[in-house]
Design a protein that fits this description.
The chain is of the alpha/beta class and 277 residues long. The protein has a single domain, classed as UDP-N-acetylmuramoyl-L-alanine:D-glutamate ligase, CATH 3.40.1190. It contains eight helices and eleven strands. Helix 2 runs parallel beside helix 3 and helix 3 packs parallel to helix 4.
Amino acid sequence: MRWLTSQLTIPVMSGALTIAGSDPTGGAGLQADLQAFATCQVHGSAVVTALTVQDSAKVHRVLPVFPSVVLDQLRALLADAPPRAAKLGMLATDDVARSVQLGLADLPNQTPLVVDPVLAASDGTSLLEPRAQRVLLELIGRSALVTPNLIEAERLTGIDVSTRSGCERAAREFVETIGARAALIKGGHRLGAPDDLLAFRESDSLQYEWLEGERFEGGPVHGTGCALSAVITAHLARGKGLRESVQAGRLLIAAGIRAAQSIGHGARRLTLPGILP
């Protein structure tokens, strides 16, 4: 069947921005973010904070981008085409983190910022120098949502998250002390049921919502955290509410894990479905 261009429906796309490191495997980092944006019919732009040398099994080297170049990228994009929502991932160094913080001063307060606090790679390689943590916490403080895994939540809050009550205390710390408007603590590293915790304000009180998780067979999958925060960001860019965006993200990532494929000798790669309506 031949298609005429007049028969094609091309949606008007909202814009979303990712500020993240580059993963040459395409499984995580800004490459995964841009794929997630496209899947959700959102136009993606990207600020590169670091280059990495890695394969599907290991990160071999991290090369931070010059802080001034990071700042110039961010300012140029925000001045030309402000996004409807933005996502922050790997920062690498204190100097890069400070440049991002300076550049985000130009992001309107009403634009949702999702912070995925990337501290280390799956193989344990550090992706954030320790002295940058203070700036990261300040950036979390201006976010609409922070999406740490259990390890990141414990390190950033200093609270033991091995129990549900501990997770709730950490979520309260993110929202009431650090300043995020909401927190999604991911439970994939938990030995038991991998349930996630969403904490958000409603009617001037902090609400906790436990979201049932599912354990999948087949071994580790690379890039799930990056893609989840990116899908949430994309839905926020489309004007969806926080809870709807989180639920859409969790459903899409679960589908991507079920369809995960091996691309090398290491972890499988998340495989997202085709473009969503």
